[in-house]
Amino acid sequence: MATKLPKTDVVVVGMGWVGGVIAAELTKAGHSVVGLERGKMRTTSDYYHVHDELRYANRYELMQDLSKETVTYRNNEKIAALPMRSYGSFLLGDGLGGAGVHWNGQYFRFLPYDFQIRTKTVERYGKSKIPDGMTLHDWGITYDELEPYFVKWEQMAGISGDPTTTEHVGKMSKPFPTAPMKETPGMKLFVEAAKKLGYHPYRMPSANLSVNYKNPDGIERAACQYCGFCERFGCEYGAKADPCVTVIPVAQNTGKLDLRTYANVTEIVHDGKKASGVRYVHMPTGEEYIQPAEVVVMASYVFNNVRTLLLSKLGKPYDPKTQSGVVGKNYCYQVNGASTAAFYEDKEFSTFMGAGALGAVLDDFNGDNFDHTDLKFLHGANISFTQTGLRPIEYNPTPAGTPAWGAAFKQASIKYANRVLKVSAQGSCMPWRHHYLDLDPTYKDSLGRPLVRMTFDFEDQDKELVKFLAAKTKEIADQMGAAKTEMNDKLSTYNIVPYQSTHNTGGTIMGSDPGDSVVNSYLQMWDAENVFVCGASVFGHNSGYNPTATVGALSYRAAEGVLKYLQKGGSLA
Q1: Where would a tag sit more exposed on the chain, N or C end, judged by fewer CB atoms within 10 A?
Q2: Choice among 31, 102, 168, 503 that is catalytic
Q3: In terms of Cα–Cα distance, which of 413, 383, 411, 376 is closest to 395?
Q4: Is 503 part of the annotated catalytic residue set?
Q5: pTM here?
Q6: Tens-place pLDDT, residues 221-261
Q7: Residue boundaries of the structural domains of the chain
């Protein structure tokens, strides 16, 4: 029998970036918030002495325990889905701050094209440019409408970046609050080569602080030390913006946040029209509770947002055969793989040092910044050189043809440890009617609930995109003056290994029509007006960028929506 607790104004499920932003904004406005996090408590002191590559990068100290909960996957409906039992393709964060703790800090606003992708594609190329089965979808909001919320996120996080923007990104109403990070010799080579080719490189916007910074909420953080331990690690300096050192302390300082860890939400309690709260299990004891609330905010990761709605029977599940329903629709990933490695004989670089968002990038081939008329794909990619810190266990670069073990391998590995620079492309991923999330009929978690099942594969569109982008990375790498370059332009069937990116999107997509979306532009559910579903699960597709900036901006807009709803109720659409 579940214990019913006193009612609160808002209950937030998941205390990562989304939950932290929303909790901070609502508590500052005077509302009581219960924040439920299924992982453990975490503070900056937990990051001290974490420069242990084996423990954190290889044994996934900050990640979810897959023996208790995981996802199943299959490439199509003709094969059986199997559970992901060891980490590979993507990494699911666990504990307070979630994936916001172990991210790199690479910060990109999605392009104006992204938010109106169907309309803008049809306007330029006609409807025939969209392949049969591609469920391209406008988001129900424009870049200009979202732009002020990007600014709020940037000021909170202290984003470091070039105050000038290129013609290939959205206009900024306010410059980044801190200057760009340092320029390394490798970055300089990339920038010079790209400019010689007529492209428009700029330094990557970074949530790793370039200088000491005090944000509008009074949170002070120290500058980056360029130690190179960002991705898969927490930052002991607080230089990398994460929820535990920015928004969550703000909410706690109001006295209005009741933060509960090890609280695993199993159901949104509702009557078919409105939610009355959530049911959760306190994992150490197995005790079950019901937390009543005026508003429920789903702020967990993509897979859990979708799974919780499906388990709660809230919203209509997506059916790929009829294309009816919306929950689970438009699952997307990221199309990586296009890259070129530049091997030097007469130059060495300090590649061990770096930061998660230290690099230079260009968007000449991102979004619709170039003509797709004669191309067999839509969208594109951000092309970059990054110096994120190359650690010794995982990083052993050798030229093609080098033996995989033995004396020759060791000699080549030592020789090229500091002599290789890599130009990469982070490609967009378009939605298809047969790519979706649903509940697995066979496999269950440690509480006996069905796991979420992913049906996804790379399409011909993705393979064409990789070929095109690889040629561009090679063009730049060749211009960088290396002794030789090696290009990767192949993309095969999607597999759960190796690691590719933790940039999963879709499943609770936003839009202006209840018939083809789960939430409106305030991320308020069409089917339950007091439920807000936030995070990258609301993306209609994935862009050629990291998703965090857009997740953050939409979180600030959702917080505004919750405040409006608490004042007057009803639909905000």
Answers
A1: N
A2: 503
A3: 413
A4: yes
A5: 0.97
A6: 999 999 999 999 999 999 999 999 999 999 999 999 999 99
A7: 3-66+92-124+132-168+180-568
